[in-house]
């Protein structure tokens, strides 16, 4: 039987090499778990329940119930474009464009190289949670 890392874990994301996992939960803590070492190598405070996670190269990225999208690590960034929970993330195959979707019925696109939100698109459809559009996955 294994020991729980975080209570109420709500998201996981495996890195490209298959060695590290982003683990996030309702406590607003993000852990970077090493599969080989069977332990948390690093942890970050996101400040709100983690709703989704992806990797930006070697940097963990999470969305939160407070609407923030956070990039941790070497080039830390925080985006607060959503009014309400940001529920899903997707990284474009180029690796430099991130998208988030929120309960405010919007998609936000971020240029991670420039460290800025570039556009926010509102829809008249029902509340979005996830998944994001096909091109983003």
Q: Keywords, please?
A:
mainly beta, four-stranded antiparallel sheet, disordered C terminus
Q: Can you put this structure into words, describing what you see?
A:
The chain has 137 residues and is an all-beta fold. The chain is 0% helix and 50% strand. It contains no helices and twelve strands. A four-stranded antiparallel beta sheet has the order 1-2-3-4, with no helix packed on it. Strands 5-6-7-8 form a four-stranded antiparallel beta sheet, with no helix packed on it. The radius of gyration is 14 Å and the shape is globular. It starts with 8 loop residues before the first strand and ends in a 15-residue tail after the last strand. Residues 133-137 have low confidence and may be disordered.
String of helices and strands: EEEEEEEEEEEE
Helix content: under 10%
Main pleated-sheet profile: 4 strands, antiparallel
Mean pLDDT: 88
Number of helices: 0
Distance between the terminal alpha carbons, to the nearest Å? 33 Å
Round the Cα radius of gyration to an integer and report it: 14 Å
Strands of the biggest beta sheet: in what spatial order? 1-2-3-4
Q: What is the general shape?
A: globular
- Assess the beta-strand content as a share of residues: over 45%
Protein structure class: mainly beta
Instruction: Please count the beta strands (DSSP E, at least 2 residues each).
Output: 12
Low-pLDDT runs: 133-137
């Amino acid at each position: 039987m294994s020991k729980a890392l975080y209570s109420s874990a709500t998201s996981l994301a495996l890195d490209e090499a298959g060695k590290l996992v982003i683990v996030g939960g309702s406590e607003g803590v993000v852990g970077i778990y090493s599969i080989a070492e069977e332990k948390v190598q690093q942890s970050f405070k996101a400040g709100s329940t983690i709703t989704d996670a992806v990797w930006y190269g070697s940097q963990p990225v999470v969305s939160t119930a407070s609407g923030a999208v956070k990039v941790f690590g070497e080039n830390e960034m925080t985006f607060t474009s959503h009014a309400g929970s940001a529920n899903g993330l997707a990284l474009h195959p180029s690796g430099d464009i991130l998208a988030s979707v929120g309960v405010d019925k919007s998609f936000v696109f971020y240029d991670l190289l420039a460290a800025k939100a570039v556009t926010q698109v509102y829809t008249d459809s029902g509340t979005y949670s996830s998944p994001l559009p096909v091109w983003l996955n």
